[in-house]
Amino acid sequence: MSTPPDPPEEPRHEPSPGEPRPVVPPSGEPRPVVSVPVSPSGGPDHVSPSGEPRYEPPPGPGRLALWILLFAVAALAVVLGGVYFT
Question: Which helix (H) or strand (E) holds 74?
Fold first, then answer.
């Protein structure tokens, strides 16, 4: 008895670079593709379970004051060093 010929293979769809690729588990059944939203910076968007985006808290006013103080001390050191060594 002869076996029927194999069916012709269908052309495979190659996803474009931005398109998610389907993942095929060892069982051979394709799983649904779940896409993760990506932020413009390239990382995943942080969305809480309630659906609201989470943001990093703003820096306190003390941190800005420390940067200004550090800059002022550095500028003073440069001026005093220039006066001392001339």
Answer: helix 61-84
Q: Could you tell me the pTM of the whole model?
A: 0.34
Q: What are phi and psi of 41, to 5 degrees?
A: -75, -10
Residue 72's identity, in one-letter code, is A
Residue-averaged pLDDT of the chain: 75
Residue type, position 22, single letter:
P
Can you give the length of the chain in residues?
86
Nearest to 12 by CA among 22, 3, 26, 2: 22
Termini Cα distance of the chain: 106
Structure tokens that stand for 31 in this block: 């799983």
Distance CA(76)–CA(49), nearest Å, equals 50
